[in-house]
């Protein structure tokens, strides 16, 4: 089996989760060979923990000298743009945490660079590749709920209010929409396409980010999605996909590893199917990157540039509806 | 104890429920003394079932000759306006099923007439008077969930598609919003006031009514309500009231007699309190009418003209957003 070497930029929670799930990817022998952090000591600590030979504290050095097959960018979102640009220009394939950039302008430029350097780039929307989402798509294809009519999905996290918390800090790309809201928006666009109409309501913090965000998206004449993200209140964190003859509920936490998927036919059968896989589930996006690269692709069809551009466009629209601007925009 | 005589206009399901709950109202000995229906045989059948002495098949006759203390209007909503106008002009106090009228223009005129004839008029929003709603209001007053942030409520009913079904028939005031959506809109306005911004999405039927309706209402800078009504899909039919420190869930069916109210403090206590009362719960609005009349009022403070006008204004706005017009408008 091929050995596939990853460079990891960032050493936070999601980078750890990625490193822990990596060995579960089945299409190659994936391992981490280089780590980049602002602090060399942090990079070395992470590298040691996951048996990576190389540590870096400089982006250009990392891009020029790390011997990796692909890079996983796991830093806070305001940093993605520059990191991806530098890696792509060194022809390093990139799997970039979501949101890929903080605006459509950024994301479009990133995909332009990928094209120009003929190098792979994909948004790390790991939920896209979870078996639970595949189950739902299959049920919809089999018309298990008739015609799709609405999706109700939410994601909340009661974020700590500590000073400097990235969740509430504009300079760190804070706000509920980019951090959490991207998941329900992703799901609605995966199952319904690009929204034709976007309405939203937010609670603005004193520093000017969205502490919560309620969205009503319309998809053509007969479908809608009611979506929520929140850093300050609790939401169900389920996803309910409703059709003319039944509904599917992905239980809490719907975007990660939910205990089960509930399927209900109106006036009929009700089933609850347990969901299970090893690890947290980041291995599935890892497999996608490897499969795409092996086929010489510079983008994924399952998580395509067009999809990522639509996703950030929706979030741009919502932010603009409430004049939320980041300092680095 | 006083005897209080009711005239009932209409003999459908809700009229039956009213008649069955009437004896449960505790502030007087309430009974039905007159029934009006388009068909005399139907009126007589209903009158016999509920031991009412008088039956009518003519509105003017009913208003002029029935010996009643108040009238309950329980016909389909397009008929409310004329029936209420005639009763009020005969100085008969009126409890009128919701929606009181099909437009703000109608409802405003009805309250004008009530004022002109110094006669009581109230919208029969029975949910307003349920002990479950009182429990929630008390919890909010006691700041059980901190500052209120959002309400999520829905109401759906998989309506039969039979030919002539009033649910889908424009000439009978069909559509999900006026029939079901009025409940979640009512709840949001009861707890949050008048919406400052209204967004909505509907699925329009071939005949031009809303088969479902999704609403995102904003209330000032920091509150919103996500509401749904549907005749064609299933929704949770719960009401979740969410604040900065916890949430309250009125279980399904939240607008009637729910099994329980769930209260949850973030990172803390979770309680489930059973809800129970005799009958369906229409007796509580009956008590309100009697109490108001005994005090010489021509309107209720708990379900005021202003509240009813705001309610229908919101629904007018939503209908106009989608150019839904009824043939009799």
Automatic annotation (TrEMBL), chains A, B:
<dbReference type="InterPro" id="IPR000683">
    <property type="entry name" value="Gfo/Idh/MocA-like_OxRdtase_N"/>
</dbReference>
<dbReference type="Pfam" id="PF22725">
    <property type="entry name" value="GFO_IDH_MocA_C3"/>
</dbReference>
<comment type="similarity">
    <text>Belongs to the Gfo/Idh/MocA family.</text>
</comment>
<dbReference type="GO" id="GO:0016491">
    <property type="term" value="F:oxidoreductase activity"/>
</dbReference>
<dbReference type="InterPro" id="IPR050984">
    <property type="entry name" value="Gfo/Idh/MocA_domain"/>
</dbReference>
<dbReference type="InterPro" id="IPR036291">
    <property type="entry name" value="NAD(P)-bd_dom_sf"/>
</dbReference>
<dbReference type="Pfam" id="PF01408">
    <property type="entry name" value="GFO_IDH_MocA"/>
</dbReference>
<feature type="domain" description="Gfo/Idh/MocA-like oxidoreductase N-terminal">
    <location>
        <begin position="5"/>
        <end position="122"/>
    </location>
</feature>
<feature type="domain" description="GFO/IDH/MocA-like oxidoreductase">
    <location>
        <begin position="136"/>
        <end position="248"/>
    </location>
</feature>
<dbReference type="GO" id="GO:0000166">
    <property type="term" value="F:nucleotide binding"/>
</dbReference>
<protein>
    <submittedName>
        <fullName>Putative dehydrogenase</fullName>
    </submittedName>
</protein>
<keyword id="KW-0560">Oxidoreductase</keyword>
<dbReference type="InterPro" id="IPR055170">
    <property type="entry name" value="GFO_IDH_MocA-like_dom"/>
</dbReference>
């Amino acid at each position: 089996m091929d050995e596939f070497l990853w460079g990891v930029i960032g050493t936070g929670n999601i980078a750890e989760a990625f490193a822990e799930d990596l060995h579960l990817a089945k299409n190659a022998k994936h391992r981490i060979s280089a780590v980049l952090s602002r602090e060399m000591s942090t990079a070395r600590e992470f590298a040691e923990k996951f048996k990576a030979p190389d540590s870096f504290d400089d982006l250009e050095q990392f891009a020029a000298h790390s011997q990796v097959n692909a890079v996983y960018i796991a830093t806070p979102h305001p940093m993605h743009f520059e990191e991806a640009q530098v890696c792509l220009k060194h022809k390093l394939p990139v799997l970039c945490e979501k949101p890929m950039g903080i605006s459509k302008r950024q994301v479009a430029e990133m995909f332009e660079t990928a094209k120009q350097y003929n190098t792979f780039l994909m948004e790390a929307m790991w939920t896209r590749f979870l078996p639970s989402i595949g189950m739902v798509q299959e049920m919809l294809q089999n018309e298990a709920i008739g015609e799709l009519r609405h999706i109700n999905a939410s994601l909340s996290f009661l974020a700590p209010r500590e000073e400097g918390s990235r969740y509430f800090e504009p300079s760190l790309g804070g706000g509920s929409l980019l951090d959490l809201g991207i998941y329900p928006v992703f799901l609605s666009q995966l199952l319904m396409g690009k929204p034709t109409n976007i309405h939203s309501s937010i609670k603005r913090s004193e520093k000017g980010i969205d502490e919560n965000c309620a969205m009503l998206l319309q998809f053509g004449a007969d479908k809608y999605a009611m979506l929520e993200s929140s850093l300050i209140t609790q939401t169900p964190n389920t996803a309910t996909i409703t059709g003319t003859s039944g509904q599917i509920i992905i239980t809490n936490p719907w975007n990660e590893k939910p205990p089960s998927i509930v399927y209900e036919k109106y006036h009929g059968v009700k089933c609850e199917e347990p969901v299970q896989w090893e690890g947290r589930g980041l291995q599935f996006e890892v497999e996608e990157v490897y499969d795409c690269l092996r086929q010489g692709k510079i983008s994924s069809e399952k998580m395509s540039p067009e999809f990522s551009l639509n996703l950030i466009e929706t979030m741009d629209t919502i932010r603009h509806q409430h004049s939320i601007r980041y300092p680095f925009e």
